[in-house]
Design goal:
alpha/beta, eight-stranded mixed β-sheet, 8 strands, binds NADP nicotinamide-adenine-dinucleotide phosphate, 350 residues, Rossmann fold
């Protein structure tokens, strides 16, 4: 591990032990509608959704699997705490274009055209041990972290932009929140379009999060005067399911985790604490977008994210890919193959 990573880890433990994490201030969200992707129990999306619903928003959650179970659990918690709520759920797999299209069609048919808050929270890091030597690919051939964390949210956002634009107003713009990570600091603009370094899932995770920070800034440049504000953030280091995904079959790690899990609360945030910065970005009155946030405050992003030409190119090329997709299924035609080749270099990582 490089010395800088060790220093960051030590300072984060010290900060965790010495300071209380900031909490977002309650805001009356009625009658706004919010989508929170990736809201499975134990995740920060779950805690985000439950807070927005408790504050009066109509909330739509997504998970990949067991969506109804997540909705029911959330409803029970809200009821037990005495909150009236409007909660809905629908499955969404961001790696599948047909799933994104299905979600958007379901949303328009069932919920309508009103949408004031979109929280692009769902994400993965499927190789916490960093043992993959080759990229794992999505069914349509992209590196899996890039596909899940960047391309899927871009596809979803693109399809929902007309709803956001018409639902926002000058005084209350709609908000798009991209849950990135401080690991976007690992990202390099030069690797966004053509990956040249040996494969490393931590690096690619960082690239996907750098892509999201660019997306937040570019969305602000394009839609900031059209009643939408856009934010990127680091939620903190949080004890969620993300770190244990992919380790289920590793017996040795399972045994180790039994010992480590009780200790992790010493240096990691709870999911509720970890949800605060995205809740803040989605709800704090008058909060100007086009910025990166950490601990409920504006923070400095990786300077790579300030290169407007890179953000513009990434947006344009990703949109060319999205616009080439059939609107009802993912398709495998030549338009998509061509877009796959030029949308990002991540697809051809070797
Ligand atoms: N935890 C941390 O320390 C940390 C730090 C920095 C950034 N983040 C970011 O915070 C976000 C939330 O992570 P978390 O820690 O709450 O992780 P988590 O507990 O693993 O939750 C991830 C959520 O994303 C969903 N998801 C996974 N793959 C998906 C796909 N292909 N399509 C749609 N949804 C998918 C999962 O649904 P299923 O359960 O149905 O699979 C789950 O609801 C992620 O973007 C992550 O990168 C987390």
């Amino acid at each position: 591990m490089p010395l800088s990573d060790v220093t960051t880890a030590v300072s984060s433990v010290a900060r965790r032990l010495l300071t209380k994490p900031p909490m977002a201030m309650p805001v009356d969200l009625h009658p706004k509608t919010a989508i929170v992707t990736g809201a499975s129990p134990g995740s920060i999306g779950y805690e985000t959704a439950i807070t927005l619903a408790a504050w009066g928003a109509r909330v739509i959650i997504t998970t990949r699997s067991n969506t109804d179970t997540s909705v029911e659990k959330m409803r029970r918690e809200l009821q037990a705490d005495g909150f009236h709520h409007q909660l809905h759920g629908h499955p969404l797999d961001l790696t599948r274009a047909d799933s994104v299209e299905d979600f958007v069609a379901w949303y328009r048919h069932t919920i309508g055209d009103s949408l004031q808050i979109l929280i692009n929270n769902a994400g993965i890091h499927a190789d916490i041990l960093g043992s993959w030597r080759e990229p794992h690919l999505s069914a349509d051939g992209f590196e899996i972290h890039w596909r899940t964390n960047f391309m899927g949210p871009m596809h979803l956002t693109r399809r929902l932009l007309p709803l956001l634009e018409q639902s926002g107003t000058v005084s209350e713009p709609a908000r798009v929140v991209f849950v990135a990570s401080h690991l976007h600091q690992k990202g390099l603009n030069s690797e966004l379009f053509h990956a040249s370094q040996p494969y490393n899932s931590w690096q690619t995770y960082g690239q996907s999060k750098l892509g999201l920070v660019h997306a937040a800034f570019e969305l602000q440049r394009r839609y900031g005067h059209r009643n939408i504000q856009s934010y990127a953030l680091h939620p903190g280091s949080i004890a969620t399911n993300i770190a244990i995904r992919g380790l289920e079959t590793n017996q040795r790690m399972q045994r180790l985790l039994q010992w480590v899990n009780p200790l992790q609360m010493l240096f990691m945030l709870t999911p509720r604490q970890g949800a605060q910065t995205q809740i803040y970005c989605a709800t704090a009155p008058g909060l100007a977008g086009g910025r990166y946030f950490d601990r409920c405050a504006a923070a400095a992003p990786n300077p790579e994210a300030n290169h407007e030409q890179v953000g513009k190119r990434l947006w344009d090329e990703t949109l060319a890919w999205i616009d080439s997709l059939p609107s009802t299924d993912c398709g495998t035609g030549s338009a998509q193959d061509a877009a796959r080749a030029n949308a990002t270099g991540q697809a051809s990582t070797a």
